Amino acid sequence: MTQAADKLQSDQEIIDSIGAYGYGWHDSDDAGASARRGLNEDVVRDISAKKNEPEWMLERRLKALEIFDKKPMPTWGADLSGIDFDQIKYFVRSTEQQATSWEDLPEDIKNTYDKLGIPEAERQRLVAGVAAQYESEVVYHQIREDLEEQGVIFVDTDTALEEYPELFKEYFGTVIPAGDNKFSALNTAVWSGGSFIYVPPGVHVDIPLQAYFRINTENMGQFERTLIIVDEDAYVHYVEGCTAPIYKTDSLHSAVVEI
């Protein structure tokens, strides 16, 4: 084969790969299979109870549910009228506790993140911190010690509500309130997981903090809530990504990021 023919073949392979989706596999679905479908007050109360949240957060969730029920579907963006909210599974807990070592994760979840290349990025020090969310909750979290020593906070949002309640309450919902649109109300009602970042004055986090969100369950709804607070003369580089399996029916990813 000539050099020109080699190049044509290589170019064709690149063209053929465009639009190909390489993340469509799924793991076993034991946790998701038993998850309840549909959205109502009982579902919202159940999510809050499982997380042992303070009363003010439950009240915020219930108020957001009322707003969600009253708000029309947004007319901007794509046509979302086909979403059947009664078929969505709003909370799936895949593990009982968060891991600080990849080896401590269940084998199928660990293998999924290996395929996605997330542990390798951490091993090569391409990121300064990693959050890995699987279904509704963050299952792995880590941050470099030198950043912690400078006062940088990088935890999952559920942990932030528990450990930094005053800081959390001061900023939660101030950029994107529940009343902004139907989907901000939905997220506020059923949010789970996400990243919480605080960078003190004058501190620069130049190497990225990374979060990755993976859906596994069919008809799963993933509703992480990310809150990033950067103080004066501070800087943070934050990146996130998400993937889901390919099923015959829909899943829903409806996140809120407040900066």
Q: How are the SSEs placed, and which strands pair?
A:
Layout: H1 3-17, H2 30-33, H3 41-50, H4 55-70, H5 107-116, H6 118-123, E1 129-134, E2 137-143, H7 145-149, E3 153-156, H8 157-163, H9 165-171, H10 182-190, E4 195-199, E5 204-214, E6 221-222, E7 225-230, E8 235-243, E9 252-253, E10 256-258
Parallel strand pairs: 1-5, 4-7, 5-8, 6-9, 7-10
Antiparallel strand pairs: 1-2, 3-4
Question: Structural class, judged by helices and strands?
Answer: alpha/beta
Question: What is the number of domains?
Answer: 1
Order of helices and strands: HHHHHHEEHEHHHEEEEEEE
Main β-sheet: number of strands, strand sense, barrel status? Answer: 4 strands, mixed
Distance between the termini: 54 Å
Per DSSP, the total helix count is 10
Broad shape: globular
Percentage of β-strand residues: 15-25%
Extended strand count: 10
Strand order of the largest sheet: 2-1-5-8
The low-confidence runs, each spanning 5 or more residues with pLDDT under 50, are none
Fraction of residues in helices?
A: 25-40%
Please compute the radius of gyration using only Cα atoms: 20 Å
Summarize model confidence as the mean pLDDT. 91
